[in-house]
Design a protein that fits this description.
By secondary structure, the protein is an all-alpha fold. 51% of the residues lie in helices and 0% in strands. It is built from six helices and no strands. Helix 1 crosses helix 5.
Length: 111
């Protein structure tokens, strides 16, 4: 990929892990992007499974597009394809140590 990818190409990579040739978009359009991905064979459970993985979009690409907007759109897309889930802490296999209990009980002054 020689030219800097646009919105849909970068978001498509973040979801699928593949650099797809998608039509350029001046601004992100989630519905259009999902239709383009479906046309490229990425839909349903295949897309949801791929979107659950971490696909590192180059930082310069994200910075060029606008990091906050990029991540906001990506979170929305992952939600739309069902690639989000409940976040749970790791299962405890041992009791907390004294230091861990102290940290868990620590509260800021305004608590």
């Amino acid at each position: 990929m020689t030219a800097r990818p646009g919105w849909h190409t970068a978001l498509g990579f973040a979801l699928t892990g593949e650099w797809l040739e998608l039509p350029p978009a001046e601004l992100p359009d989630p519905e259009t992007l999902l239709a383009q991905l479906a046309d490229a064979g990425w839909s349903g459970e295949r897309l949801a499974e791929a979107a659950r993985q971490s696909h590192q979009v180059p930082a310069d690409v994200v910075a060029t597009l606008g990091a906050a907007q990029f991540w906001a759109v990506l979170v929305d897309l992952r939600r739309r394809v069902g690639a989000t889930g409940e976040v749970r802490p790791p299962a405890m296999t041992r009791p907390l140590t004294a230091d861990e209990r102290r940290l868990a009980a620590d509260r800021p002054p305004h608590w």
